[in-house]
Amino acid sequence: MSEAESTMPPLVVNIQYVKDLSLEVPGAPAIYTQLRTAPRVDINLDVQARRIVDGQDQFEVVLAIRADAKMPAETGETELQVFVAELAYGGVFTLTGIPEESIEPVLLVECPRLLFPFARNILSEVTREGGFPPVLLQPIDFVALWQSRRGQAQAAGHA
């Protein structure tokens, strides 16, 4: 390890960015006159990580969040789509001197923890600017998410 590497912190955030952002309001403008209460919002969150260049210690980590809002139809039969907000919020991270077995948890737990507050704010702002109550994501247990993902991968490997 060179002297420059030994003085670098083990985890560096090089850049954070909005990779993709969309807000769809399929029933506009009528949905605004029909909406009497806050819609029910289902959240789907995923974390993806990949090495940017083989042999280098730079990784892209992306938080993919989908907020799907629905409300009961006036006829009571089905639900109406209020809005769909999708955000892919990424960061480029440099990992230095981290043991190979620790890279996955750093990428799928620590890096998303750093990105989450910014992604949460963007999702809240875009839904508010869309004319709806802001979607406020609750804190995410990225350790549990990572462990669940590993369990699913191991189960799929044995199937």
Structure description:
The chain has 4 helices and 4 strands. It is α+β, with helices and mostly antiparallel strands and 159 residues long. The protein has a single domain, classed as SecB-like (Bacterial Protein-export protein SecB, Roll), CATH 3.10.420.10. β2 and β3 form a beta hairpin.
Could you list the spans in which at least 5 consecutive residues all have pLDDT below 50?
none
Roughly how many Å is the radius of gyration? 19 Å
Helix content: 25-40%
Shape: elongated
Strand order of the largest sheet: 1-4-3-2
DSSP summary, beta strand count? 4
Proportion in β-strands: 35-45%
**Secondary-structure element order, as H and E?**
HEHEEEHH
Largest sheet: 4 strands, antiparallel
What is the averaged pLDDT score?
Answer: 91
Q: Which secondary-structure class do the elements indicate?
A: alpha+beta
Helix tally equals 4
CATH superfamily: SecB-like
Query: Any idea of the CATH topology?
Result: Bacterial Protein-export protein SecB
Distance between the termini: 42 Å
Q: Under the CATH scheme, which class?
A: Alpha Beta
CATH architecture: Roll
Structurally, the number of domains stands at 1
